[in-house]
Specification:
The protein is an alpha/beta fold. The protein contains six helices and eleven strands.
Length: 222
């Protein structure tokens, strides 16, 4: 584990270098402790660096909105480490969702469900719907397991700005407002996840990303 400093005038947060395939347990433990206490940690996902907060903590979720300067009516997606984590977070799991999960999880597919009552209203943007993805990056998986709860997976950028594949490229104003950065090097292709709403009788593709819409339709059509 290698430590560095963010090097910004207002706040000196730590940047911890981690192996993308086998992250140092001490680094993960430290990051998880920060998240459990309400802190924000920048971490790698399969596509971009994200901002991780404890998804069941409304105050921490509020900090994510504030840091990103995000419209409070736009929900945050969350990441889970195991398919079994899903049951407690949603009202139901439609058959269409089961088919899509079997085909594409873990991976770049975010599914939008009816949110369970236990989820903070601000997490869902007051829509009562929640986007969920099964984490695929080893660092993200380890972090979620160590936290013991789902974490937010929104990109580590200001709303309307480009997402970042390298921790070194994060905007300095954002670095000033987070508590730790887990640097796993340059990530993947940089393609956002494909988002599919499974709350209606017919699943709807809300955003085409790393998974082609044609592949989604093929699975849905059986």
């Amino acid at each position: 584990m290698r430590l560095a400093r963010c090097g910004v005038p207002m706040k000196s947060c730590d940047i911890v270098s981690v192996d993308p395939e086998s992250p140092d347990p001490d680094a993960i433990t430290r990051a998880a402790a920060l998240i459990r206490s309400g802190g924000l940690v920048v971490f790698p996902t399969s596509s971009f660096y994200g901002i991780g907060a404890q998804a069941l903590n409304p105050e921490a979720v509020g900090r994510v909105f504030q840091v990103k300067q995000r419209d409070p009516e736009k929900p945050l997606l969350i990441l889970i480490a195991s398919r079994t984590d899903l049951d407690a977070l949603v009202q139901s799991i439609p058959e269409t969702a089961t088919r899509l999960m079997k085909a594409f999880w873990p991976g770049s597919l975010t599914l939008v469900f009816e949110a369970a009552d236990r989820l903070p209203p601000n997490l869902t943007g007051y829509t009562r719907k929640i986007g969920i993805r099964l984490a695929g990056h080893p660092v993200a998986i380890s972090l979620i397991k160590a936290v013991g709860a789902p974490i937010t997976g929104t990109s580590a950028n200001f709303s309307g700005h480009a997402a970042f594949r390298a921790a070194a490229d994060l905007e300095s104003r954002l670095r000033e407002q987070v508590d730790l950065i887990l640097d796993a090097g340059t990530l993947g292709t940089g393609e956002a996840s494909t988002v599919v709403d499974v709350t209606a009788d017919t699943a709807k593709i809300l955003r085409e990303g790393a998974i082609d819409a044609a592949k989604i339709r093929t699975v849905l059509e059986g």
